[in-house]
Amino acid sequence: MKPNRKPRVPNFSSGPCTKRPGWSPEVLRHATVGRSHRAAEGKAKLQAAIDGTREILGVPEGHRIAIVPASDTGAVEMALWTLLGARGVDVLAWESFGAGWATDIVKQLAIEDCRLLEAPYGELPDLAAVDFDHDVVFCWNGTTSGVRVADGEWIADDRQGLTVCDATSAAFAMALPWRKLDVVTFSWQKVLGGEAQHGMLILGPRAVARLESHTPPWPLPKIFRLTKGGKLSEGPFRGETINTPSMLCVEDYLDALEWAKGVGGLDGLIARSEGNARLVADWVAATPWVDYLARLPATRSCTSVCLTIVDDWFAGLSADDRAATAKRLVAMLADEGVAYDIGAYRDAPTGLRIWCGATVEGADIEALLPWLDWAYGELKASARPAA
How many whole angstroms separate alpha carbon 31 and alpha carbon 41? Predict the structure, then answer.
């Protein structure tokens, strides 16, 4: 039977993610719109965004934090184009975004001494095979596969290369070992449910030393330049952004940071995400038609939870029919106003992807799960031939 309870907020997209509980446009009323971001008020808000990020994430004082353009993509590209080229590179890819960074490194930057360590969706590459004499580029959490690294113990303390970590769907939901990470990037629109087009670039002391000692062999667009006269340009790390930010988005991010403090800071955010993921895990354990894409429990994401359909009826369909059936399931839930944007990423295996980040309420996850059973049951029943 069709469930009679719906999620209060049916937004389960993996990016942009749902706004924090209780959000309304009223939180933007103090935004410094119509003013220069270089005015004292604007610079103060940008600095507050940097300071709040440091406080919530526990970023060490020796690490620099900048607000950069073009979301997480811009932050990662800035790191790749300015830092790589001094030594060989190991790039890890187990889903579409890691594969994208590999393409940039191999085809755009054309770094010859480059190793690609790959794994199929649902698995991790062999982390023991990473060469830490190389620079290492990887995603902490595979947003499109639901596979994350379990911890940072595989990263060498005596590494000679830099570690460049795309943490966009991990920051604020997973513990990041800052002493192991030389570069960390993320975007506002993920775990805290902020607005898009603004990224965060966090540089540890080893990354700063590389910037000041290494000149890339390729031309650098102005938007990527972080040094002047061989020294780090301090402005971007004091809120003097490289290009004009949206002060509405800044105000929204400041609101999200305040909300994060109110739920217990980083520990509270992690607990919310892990709690949401456990609700899905309990349902998966009791549901025979679905399973995780991530094979090992220790590597299963607590934010972008990716599921695959394992029912014999579904497995017996052609690949095209499986894809069409999954799309119909997603559409049914959207039509009911129960869940939006929960289809698997376009490059990922056919299935579902449910965002369980901290801005999602557990009660909404609980309300969603019976609807998944209902929708799948309806599709399966409609496909049976008449008796």
Answer: 10
CATH code of the domain made up of 25-260: 3.40.640.10
User: Which residues, in sequence order, are bridge partners of residue 184?
Assistant: 165, 202
Q: Where in the chain is the domain with CATH 3.90.1150.10?
A: 264-383
Q: How does DSSP assign 328-347, residue by residue?
A: HHHHHHHHTTS-BS-BPPTT
What is the mean pLDDT of the segment spanning 129-141? 98
Answer whether CATH 3.40.1190.10 is correct for domain 264-383: no
Q: Which 3-state string (H, E, C) describes 209-252? A: HHHHHCCCCCCCCHHHCCEECCEECCHHHHCCCCCCCCHHHHHH
Burial 118-142 (b: 16+ CB within 10 A, else e): ebebbbbbebeebbbebbbbbbbbb
**What confidence tens digit (pLDDT) does each residue in 46-73 have?**
999 999 999 999 999 999 999 999 999 9
Helix (H, G, I), strand (E, B) or coil at 136: strand
First-to-final CA distance of the chain: 21
Closest CA to 91 of 113, 117, 112: 117
* Tokens describing residue 5: 């309870």
Distances (CA, A) of 149 to 116, 122, 153, 267, 301: 17, 12, 10, 19, 9
CA distance 84 to 164: 10
- Using only C-alpha atoms, the chain has a radius of gyration, in whole angstroms, of 22
Domain with CATH 3.40.640.10 in the chain: 25-260
Query: Which residues fall within 8 angstroms of residue 100, CB to CB, at 6 or more apart?
Result: none
Sort strands 163-166 and 183-187 into parallel, antiparallel or unpaired.
Answer: parallel
Q: Is 254 exposed, middle or buried (0-12, 13-18, 19+ CB in 10 A)?
A: buried
Q: What number is the average pLDDT over the span 81-102?
A: 97
- Helix residue ranges per DSSP H, 263-342: 265-285, 312-315, 319-335
Residue with tokens 């399973």: 291
CA-closest candidate to residue 183, choices 150, 209, 158: 209
